[in-house]
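Consider what follows.

. . .
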Amino acid sequence: MKFENTEVYGFKRALKGMRNPLESWHKNDTVEENGKVVIGENDLGLAQRLIKAGSEHRKFMRQIFVSVDITAPMYFMAELDTYKIGITRNSSSFMHKGVSKTFEIEDFEYGDERVKEILTTRKKNNPYKGTETILYPYETNEYKLYKCQNGREYEVYKNGRLYSLPFTYVDTLGRSRTFPKREVSPSVTKNGYWEVNIGGRNGEKWLLHRLIANVWLDNPNNCETIDHIDCNKNNNCVENLQWVTREENIKREFDNCLMRNNSMYANYLNWKKSSKIDLLKKKQIRDLGKTNMLQSDIANLMDVSQSQVSVILRDVDNTSENRQLFEECLTWETLLASLNDLREKYLDTKDYFYFKEIRRLLPSSYLYKSTITMNYENIRNMYFQRKNHKLTEWSKSFIDWARTLPYAQELIFPDETENI
C-alpha cells in the first residue's frame, strides 16, 4: 500500500473563515512563509477549542483539503467508499487497462515480503528478466550443416537460429510434395529450455542448446552437460555455451545462476516437489531409504519421481518453519498462472467470457491506484473509527500517513496531546 503525491491546501482561508461567527478577523495570525503555512498562536488556540466543542463547531476542518494518490487493495477501497460524503475518488480502470500487462505478484497486496522475493527470484537473477522469449544477440551468416539420420538437412547458425533446407517428401499415396527453406521455431519446455523437433515424422527431438553445442563446439573431455555462461536459457548463441561436467554445472547453478544468494528459493522448489506426497508415503520412502535400496527402485515402487525421492531422503523438504510461507507462495503462483492463462485466451479470442472469468477469479487484494480528495474532518473521523481496525491498511498504514500531514497532531489528533 502506497501514499504518493500528497497535497494540502486551504489552511489560510479555512482559519480565517472560522473567525466569521464572532467577526474576530483582527486576531487572525496565520501567515505563509516561503510557500509554507504557519499557524499563529491565536488561530491554533481557537481551532483546538472548536475541535473539542464538536463537529458542528469545527466546520473549518471541512475546508482544509487533502489530495493524495493511494495504491491499495480492492478491499481497502471498498471500505473507504463508506465515507462517501466529502470524499471524491478517481480510480484506475480494470475494464480499460486490467489485461494490458501480465499479472505479477507486485499487482497484489500480500502478507509476507518473502513471497515476492521467492516468486521473483528467477526473474531477478536472469539478466534478460526471465521472459519466455528466445534471444538472438546478433545476426550472422555463419552456419554449419546438420544432417538428421533420415537425411533431412538443417542450417545451424552461430547465433542460435535454425533453418530447414528445401526437401521433397513422397507421402503414403505416392504424391510428391516440395517444401521450401524455412526457419524452425523452438518451443519452451517447463524447465525453461528451448526445444526443436526436426526431421519430420520419425525425426529427432533436441534441446536447442545441445544441438548447437554438438554442431559447433568440440568436446574433448566427453562432458555430458552444456552450461549457459550468462545463466540465461534464452541465449543459445555459440559464445554463451560451454561443455562442463555435471558437477561443474551444478556448482555454477548454485554459485552464479538461479539459486544465487537465495537458498529460500531452493527450499521452496524442494518443498514443491514433495508437497504432493502424503506423510505416510514419505515415511515409507524414508524407511526404504534406510535399507540402501536404490532411489530409482524406490521411485518405481512408490510411484513417484526419483527427484522427489531424493528430496525426501535428503530431508530438505523438512521445512515446517516455512511451510505456511511456501503454501502462500504456491497459492499465489497457481493463481497468477490461472489469471495469465485466461488473459492470453482473452487476448487471442477477444471473447468476453475469459475477461469475465478473470474478474470472477481476481482476488480483492488486487491493487488499484486512486486519486483521493478529502478534508481534515474526514481524516479525523476515519482515525477514531479505524484506529483499532483489524486491517493494518487502516490501523497502521493510513494512520501513519495521516500523521505526516501539516499540523496533524494539533488538528487531527489533538486528543492525544497533554494540554488539550
Q: What stands out?
A: The radius of gyration is 32 Å. Residues 394 and 400 are 9 Å apart (CA to CA). The chain has a mean pLDDT of 86.
